[in-house]
Every structure is written in C-alpha cells, then in structure tokens.
Automatic annotation (TrEMBL):
SUPFAM superfamilies: S-adenosyl-L-methionine-dependent methyltransferases (SSF53335). The keyword Transferase applies. Keywords: Methyltransferase, Transferase. The keyword Lipid biosynthesis does not apply. CDD domains: AdoMet_MTases. This is Methyltransferase domain-containing protein. Transmembrane segments: none annotated. GO terms for molecular function: methyltransferase activity. One of its GO terms (biological process) is methylation. Signal peptide: none annotated.
C-alpha cells in the first residue's frame, strides 16, 4: 500500500460504512515490513474502538471489504499460494487439476483480461484486436471533457490497465479496486515491474505463459487495493473521477453500485460507466437485473431504459441523487477472448456522468 495514497485518500472502515453508513478513518496498525513509501506487510485498523476491525495488508495490498471473514474464507488460500511456479509445471498442474478446477477457472480469467488489457502491447498480437476496454474508456473520457484535478477511483479494475490509463490521462492519484486477488496480482506486477505476465489460453486446458513489457507514465501514482465496488472504503465525494468499466452486471446490487459511484464522485466531478448488461444469476439475482426481465413492465425489459431512469434523480425509487448523464450514451464493441478460436464480442453501453 502506497503511503501517499493512504495519507491522501484517508480510507475508512468498510464494515462501519456498510453496516451503519459511518465514515470511520482507518489507522495504521501493525507494520511488519515497510519502506518510506509503502507498507508491504501490516494491518489497517478501524478507529472506532467499538469496531476495531483489523484489515490485513498482504504483499502491499490492503484488504478493505465489509465482510472480511467472508472474503478471507473464499479467497484466503490464494493469499498463501506460491507464485513461483515455472511455466511448464503450471501446465502439468493444470492438466492434473482438470478443466473444472478453480485453478483453471483462474487461468481463464487471467488469460481473458490479461490479453485485453495488455495484448495491444504484445508484438505477437495483431494490431486492433486487444485493448477494447481502453478504447471504450478513451471514447467515454473524450466525451466527458475536462474534470477538476483530484484522485480517480477505478471500480472493478481487474488486470489494471484502465487504472494506468487514468493515471496518464488525469495526472492524479488512482486507486484500482477489485475483489479478484489473482487479477490484482497481475495488475500489481505491471505497477511494480513494468511487465504483464499471464497464462494465455490456446484451447482446452493448454495455456502459454505470456510476458509483455508494459510501462506506463504515472504508474507510481497508481495503487491496487482489494475492495468491494458497492462499498468503496473512502469518505464521501473524494474522487474527481470514478470509472466502473464492465462491472455493473457483475455485482449483487447494481443500484448499490450506482449509489456508491454517486457518493464517491466529488462536487463538479465525473464518472464513466460501461456495461454489456450480460446478466447472470451467479452474480446478480434476477430481481436486481436492470431490464432483461419484466417485458410487460414500464421499461419493457430494456436495460438501457432502466439504467437511464436510475441515473436520473427522481425518475426511479432507487435513482441516484447527484449524478446526471452528460451527452448521449455510446455503444462500443468490448471483447473478452476465451481461447485461440473464440472471442465473446459484446456491445458495451457507455454512459458519461457528472455531478
Ligand atoms: C467483467 S470484469 C471487467 C474488468 C475490467 N474492468 C474490464 O473492463 O476489463 C469485472 C471485474 O469486476 C470485478 N468485480 C466483480 N464484483 C465486484 C465487486 N463487488 N467489487 C469490486 N470488483 C468486483 C471482477 O473481479 C472483475 O475483475
């Protein structure tokens, strides 16, 4: 955890935020390994003695989720997994674990997002194929126009490319928040060593390790934290810009994510939201889908219409209070590569917002 980010952004206890709406500052607790610039191993502790929740900082990543024990129960094994597997042995183990294993599910995620986020920098990838999320972000930012100076929050940052782009484009501090430890580790390696290393899926459970040089101006202004996009652990109105690229249909409550963006954006600030509305019950209960059901309802099941109402103060019982759309929404291709012979081609709906 970069101390500059900690001191400037003043994170708050996600548990107190989620349970009572209180923004209680976190303080540094134990520091086991640190430099003058960052803490590698240590804890952050809630400043409210009645809570006193202790959040670990692991390998430089603070884990700031409301349900810490729940996240640890599901992901804790990843924190202690070795990261030095040679490429061929990773393949041997992948074959042994089999296609339905968590090991291979993680490799698929790393392959899909590693490729889209950094494949455009790989001399072996034909130009114009990878990089779709950056193209969506660029188009949205161009239309959003000038923003006040200040920090940027990248919700659901995944493998991290958008966080680096936001640092380059805005000149501010950027924090990328995600719940996925392996993707965040990929992002941190780019941040720390200027290289993206990930398994690229050929087919089945055959993967090739890719190592792509990825250096970004302003990488020293980026940090990656584990956090829930619906409860970003920061005081209200802290960010000049909030980005949420392709995460709205991945959360349990899309209105809660919209409220979080609304609450995080500073007065005069902006937000950019992209989503392919690719609903699935693994992430979001049907009742919480924005459209995609209730064809006989007011919005005739149209996702864009429900989203537009949620982003218009007063137009829906769960509408945001401050943000409003800036210009017409855009629809742009967004690609998720599955393997050498399969890509999922989405049409991402991109909305630019201002407070
Ligand atoms: C479809 S991926 C998009 C990744 C990246 N933004 C992009 O567009 O390439 C969704 C990302 O959101 C993350 N995510 C899902 N639910 C989240 C939550 N509640 N809080 C933070 N991140 C979340 C996932 O781990 C994943 O990295």
């Amino acid at each position: 955890m970069r101390l500059g980010h900690f001191e400037s952004l003043r994170p708050v206890c996600p548990r107190c935020l989620a349970t009572g709406g209180a923004a209680v500052p976190l303080v540094l607790g134990m520091v086991e390994e640190a430099t003058a610039e960052d803490v590698r191993w240590g804890t952050l502790v809630c400043g409210d003695a009645a809570c006193a929740m202790e959040y670990p900082i692991v390998d430089g990543v603070p884990i700031l989720v409301p349900d810490l024990r729940g996240w640890m129960a599901a992901n804790g094994h990843l924190l202690t997994t070795r990261t030095d597997l040679p490429a061929a042995m990773e393949g041997v183990l992948g074959d042994g674990f089999g296609p339905d294993s968590a090991f291979n599910a993680t490799r698929q995620h790393l392959s899909s997002y590693g490729w889209d986020h950094y494949g455009d920098l790989d001399p072996e990838t034909p130009p114009g194929e990878a990089g779709s999320v950056v193209r969506c972000l660029d188009a949205g930012l161009d239309r959003l126009g000038a923003l006040p100076a200040g920090p940027v929050l990248d919700l659901g940052c995944g493998a991290g490319r958008t966080s680096f782009e936001l640092a380059e484009r805005t000149g501010g501090l950027v924090v990328g928040l995600d719940l996925h430890w392996p993707l965040l580790m990929l992002a941190r390696r780019v941040m720390e060593r200027g290289e993206a290393v990930f398994p690229l899926r050929r087919s089945g459970i055959a993967y090739d390790r890719r190592r792509i040089e990825a250096r970004f101006t302003g990488a020293e202004r980026v940090d990656f934290w584990i956090g829930d996009a619906m409860f970003p652990p920061f005081p209200p109105r802290r960010f000049a810009l909030v980005a949420a690229m392709n995460v709205l249909d991945c959360v349990a409550s899309p209105p809660a994510l919209l409220r979080a963006i609304d609450g995080a954006a500073a007065d005069g600030g902006g937000a950019i939201l992209a989503t392919p509305f690719d609903w699935s019950t693994q992430a979001t209960p049907v009742e919480a889908w924005l459209g995609g059901h209730s064809q006989r309802g007011d919005d005739a099941g149209r996702c864009e219409a429900v989203l537009a109402r949620l982003l218009t103060p007063g137009a829906h019982p769960q509408s945001v209070g401050r943000l409003h759309a800036e210009g017409e929404a855009l629809d742009m291709p967004w690609t998720v590569r599955m393997h050498d012979r399969a890509c999922m081609q989405y049409l991402a709906h991109i909305v630019m917002l201002r407070t």
